[in-house]
User: Which sequence fits this backbone?
């Protein structure tokens, strides 16, 4: 008699534990968005990848179409080789360009794809030709400062010339 | 004369230190042998699964209230404190990420483990120690019943099974508490709260590693609790001392193991 009530409680406890795990996996984690769909790999060379990390999203027109699967340094060209895993549902022309962008001002970095106009579609193992590196804030600031300084000098020169 | 007395005192101190250290090492060896023996004789416990189910009731189900209530409050406090800091950087939408990651990776397993050690571990030690003090264990041996297989192993396995479930429920409850405070009390956007959380929490990296942590803590706490109970001097003071040692040792073990596991699990990926 006593035994069956204990069994009921223990069963409810274990069920609640698994329900909690399911809640964590589906509602809190990203198991639902895990796609078991087929993917194809495309590589791209970047002069500078900034803070791009493995598993960063690849977006086209704002829609996530894949994830970065590998980041590697090329010893010959001294550039970064990034491998993209793109969902096989999404097809892109061969002259698609890749940019490394930042979501928000200080957000994480992602790869943006912009489709070209070529009739031939990308297939697994292809390499993207047109790439644009990440914007490095320090370079941007120094460029700005140098151009400001040059501007100041120019206006001073022109004043002197008068 | 004075030098000789000083030397004798020094020697005595050294001797005591050495005896203390060797006693600790002797005890550690016994604990390891006990662990191995218990694993080898767990077959009986699993064949009579009712024994484990009964212990899960006492260890797991009766700890539910304290785990759920603490989880709810920890999540609510996290949301309040996190919001206070995040809004300075105009990033209050990241509140869900902060609450979920800190609970799933660290606070869930660790705080649930500490509560488990003080709520269930102490009870296991006291029960086994008292059985020893009242010579029930000796009586079992007389009847050719192996007390380790009959008394110790079911409690150990019940602890190992209960601990991850309790930690998961703690984390889930904490995230629910964070949701209540963050979305309904403070007014963070509900869609951003959940979607940023889902984007940042990885099932394998974060949730699975948290569960692995809680399993490790479950093994450590249950092992310490049953060993302290089995090794307790069969007196009233002996049992009370063993109960205290269970809580202190297992709390320290949880925190130390947590550091090691975090260093193994989370820093490797981020450094790359």
Assistant:
């Amino acid at each position: 008699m006593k035994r069956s009530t204990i069994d009921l409680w223990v069963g409810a406890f274990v069920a609640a534990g698994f329900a909690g795990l399911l809640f964590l996996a589906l509602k809190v984690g990203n198991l639902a968005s895990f796609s078991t769909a087929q993917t194809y790999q495309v590589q791209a060379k970047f002069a500078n990848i900034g803070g791009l990390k493995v598993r960063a999203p690849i977006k086209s027109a704002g829609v996530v179409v894949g994830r970065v699967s590998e980041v590697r340094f090329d010893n010959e060209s001294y550039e970064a080789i990034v491998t993209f895993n793109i969902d096989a549902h999404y097809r892109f022309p061969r002259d698609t360009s890749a940019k490394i962008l930042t979501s928000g001002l200080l957000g994480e970095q992602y790869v943006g794809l912009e489709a070209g106009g070529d009739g031939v579609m990308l297939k697994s193992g292809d390499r993207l030709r047109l790439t644009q590196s990440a914007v490095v804030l320090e370079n941007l600031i120094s460029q700005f400062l140098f151009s400001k300084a040059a501007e100041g000098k120019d206006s001073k020169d022109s004043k002197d010339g008068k | 004369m004075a030098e000789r007395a000083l030397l004798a005192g020094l020697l005595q101190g050294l001797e005591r230190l050495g005896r203390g250290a060797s006693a600790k090492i002797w005890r550690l060896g016994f604990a390891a042998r006990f662990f191995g023996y218990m694993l080898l004789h767990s077959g009986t416990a699993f064949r009579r699964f009712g024994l484990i189910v009964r212990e899960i009731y006492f260890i797991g189900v009766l700890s539910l209230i304290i785990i759920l209530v603490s989880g709810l409050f920890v999540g609510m406090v996290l949301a309040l404190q996190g919001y206070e800091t995040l809004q300075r950087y105009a990033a209050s939408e990241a509140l869900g990420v902060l609450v979920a990651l800190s609970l799933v990776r660290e606070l869930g397993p660790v705080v649930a483990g500490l509560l488990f050690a003080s709520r269930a571990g102490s009870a296991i030690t006291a029960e086994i120690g008292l059985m020893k003090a009242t010579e029930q264990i000796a009586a079992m041996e007389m009847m050719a019943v192996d007390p380790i297989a009959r008394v110790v192993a079911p409690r150990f396995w019940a602890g190992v099974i209960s601990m991850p479930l309790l930690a998961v429920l703690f984390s889930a409850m904490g995230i629910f508490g964070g949701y209540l405070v963050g979305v309904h009390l403070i007014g963070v956007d509900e869609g951003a709260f959940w979607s940023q959380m889902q984007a940042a929490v990885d099932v394998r990296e974060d949730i699975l590693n948290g569960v692995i942590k809680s399993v490790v803590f479950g093994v450590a706490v249950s092992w310490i609790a049953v060993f302290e109970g089995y090794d307790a001097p069969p007196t009233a003071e002996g049992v009370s001392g063993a109960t205290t040692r269970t809580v202190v040792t297992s709390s320290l073990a949880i925190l130390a193991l947590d550091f090691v596991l975090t260093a193994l699990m989370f820093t490797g990926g981020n450094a790359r």
About this structure: The two ends of chain B are 65 Å apart (CA to CA). Residues 48-262 of chain B form one domain. The mean pLDDT of chain B is 90. The interface with chain A takes residues 50, 53-54, 56-57, 60-61, 64, 100, 104, 162, 164-166, 168-169, 171-173, 175, 194, 197-199, 201-203, 206-207, 211, 272 of chain B (CB under 8 Å).
